[in-house]
Amino acid sequence: MRNCGVPLRGTLFKYIGVADTIIPNYAFRIIYGGVYLRLRRFRLSAVCALLCAAMIFLPGRACAESAAESAQGDSAPRAALLMEAETGQVLYSVNAAEKLPMASITKVMSLLVLADFIDDGTLKLEDRVAASSYASSAEGSVIWLEPGEEMTAAELLEAVIVSSANDACIALAEHTAGSEAQFVKLMNRRAKSMGLRGTKFTGCVGFDAEGHYSTAEDIAVMTAELVQKEYYRGWLLTWLDYLRGGGTQLLNTNKLVRTYDGILGGKTGTTDGAGCLTVCAERGGMRLVAVVLGCGEDPARFDRAEELLDYGFTGFEKYTPTVDSRELKPVPVTRGESPEVRPMVSALGECVIKKGRSSGVKYSYTFVEGVEAPVEKGQFLGEFLVTLDGTEVFRSDIVAAAEVPRMTFGRYLLAILGELVSF
After folding, report:
1. 255 an active-site residue?
2. Which DSSP string corresponds to 381-407?
């Protein structure tokens, strides 16, 4: 993942003195002599005045921190990350690679494995799924399945997504893989195939256990894929629903479903060892994933995630790099039927940059000095790099636009004869 964001630490001090500038939509916590003041969306002139007054009337030292790092003590997440979902660019991160308990965010991977069964036709939404005694004995968040009770796969999936039902998740795992243990093997295999090097599962629901962990960066990747599943979309956005003809209430544990503009869904996680949240939202064609792990009291995780999303939507925008064809000069080829090969940028796509900074984007083209035939189409010839303020925001290989066969003796002789005839 690439980090093209601006670290939030010390942001307040950077902007002090800039007239009529509004602090972005995240809170600052000013700690001065044991007095805590929370400020949100104040003009900087007011902030400066407040700081000066504090320096006059209160003893001690004053400092300010941005909202993504605002929490001290119980409300501070142990890890946090903000990622643009389509490009994978990281806009903000703290301890994003630290392996931590993830609680019921585990079910994001469970849902991805179940999606694989749905996509290949093994699991159909109308299939009847019977609960085993083991599934029915699950504790924590449950829909009180009885041994032998049947529900459709769709009903159980909704229970997992909306209310994080552990018994429903285990029932689906057993139905598709034969046992929870076999299902967990599929979860770990899926994690490996996705390149999630900081993630390991010992169960499908998320109870704290040794050897069961993930990282904020891995969870962001899982979440970005989850929200792409169209058949999950409606349930991810459901706030309240009922099963058993109204007898069982499903209440979404993700409060941002009701309150955050552009929300696409997410997953909460709560155990003794983890207070976690992963959420995805989209505005103006930009899709962001915010992850917070190891939060304290329940409101903190929603506040921190919302502040991260606000930081991304207010401070960044999508940008499409352009290629200057004049920079793509032919690369020399030795022992080839052609003395040179035409280069091309292999792939172009969008990236994310700081809002309003497109004029500061820089491009660089680097090439190998030359290549020896045969040259294959698509063979590496160099790199196309896009930066902003010295930070990489986009990179692509420069490759051969066509093949160049190696010159054989026969072809060389024909070329000489051709030149003689033309002479």
Report:
1. no
2. EEEEEEEETTEEEEEEEEEESS-BPBP
**DSSP code for 366:** E
- Say how far apart CA 255 and CA 226 lie, in whole Å: 18
Closest CA to 250 of 263, 241, 261: 241
Averaged over 97-116, what is the pLDDT? 97
| Eight-state DSSP code of residue 237 | T
CA distance 128 to 144: 17
Give mean pLDDT, residues 381-403. 97
C-alpha–C-alpha distance, residues 221 and 281, integer Å: 14
Catalytic residue among 164, 214, 255, 354: 164
Q: Would you call 260 helix, strand, or coil by DSSP?
A: coil
280 Cβ partners below 8 Å, 6+ apart? 85, 223, 224, 226, 227, 263, 264, 265, 266, 287, 288, 289, 290
For 241-282, how does the pLDDT look when each residue is reduced to its tens digit (9 = 90+)? 999 999 999 999 999 999 999 999 999 998 776 689 999 999
Whole-model pTM?
Answer: 0.79
Contact 265, 280 (CB under 8 A): yes
Cβ 93 vs Cβ 3: under 8 Å: yes
Length in residues, the chain: 423
Q: If we measure between CA atoms, which residue out of 94, 89, 90, 67 comes closest to residue 79?
A: 94
Dist. CA 6–CA 21, nearest whole Å: 17
Catalytic residue among 66, 70, 93, 104: 104
What tens digit of pLDDT does each residue of 168-184 get? 999 999 999 999 999 99
Helix 106-119 × helix 166-177 angle, to 10°: 40
Residue 217 clears pLDDT 70, i.e. is over it: yes
Which of 66, 93, 99, 107 is catalytic? The answer is 107
Q: Does the annotation mark 164 as catalytic?
A: yes
From the centroid of its chain, how far is CA 150?
36
pLDDT value of residue 408: 81
Q: Verify whether residue 93 is a known catalytic residue.
A: no
